[in-house]
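Protein Record: Sequence and Backbone Structure Tokens
======================================================
Tokens: labelled as protein backbone structure tokens, with as many entries as the chain has residues.
Question of interest: how does this chain fold, as expressed in backbone structure tokens?

___
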Amino acid sequence: MSQLFNKQSNKRSEPLSKTQQIDEPEQGFPAGIGRRLGALMYDSLLILALWFLTGFIWIPLSGDVVTGAAFQLTLLVETFAFYAYCWHKNGETLGMRAWHIRLVDESGTGVSPKQIAIRSVVAPVSLACACLGYLWLFVSKDKQTWHDKASKTLVVHLPR
């Protein structure tokens, strides 16, 4: 395991455990739209693979074409569960990890389930309003989108 920098100084220290990494304040820069979209694209490929797997399981169980409200609700729940699990466990999805960004609360520590729920409800609204919620990032002094502000979270770029 590689050595990590101590967050209080630039001296190398012993590797931090996962719990310590999430519970200690993160020091980074606000993530820009490019990194956020890059992570979203990576994650969308993972979610698409999950949806395909669900469809392959659903067809033998239903014996019919994969359609209907129950199937769509299942896909929606899977998507929410993917993000909620990743954000709560590590503060990042696989796509976010690849782009060196992490979701933290305003104090720089891990996010709560309540913040994840608020973020998950407001993010589709941000998208549905002609992406104005996402574009708000350009006018916000803290580079926060609507769902960042509503959930009191930040997406930070962690330097390598």
Residues 1-22 have pLDDT under 50 and may be disordered. The chain has one domain: 28-157. The longest helix spans residues 33-62. Helices lie at 18-23, 33-62, 69-89, 94-98, 113-128, 132-135, 146-151.
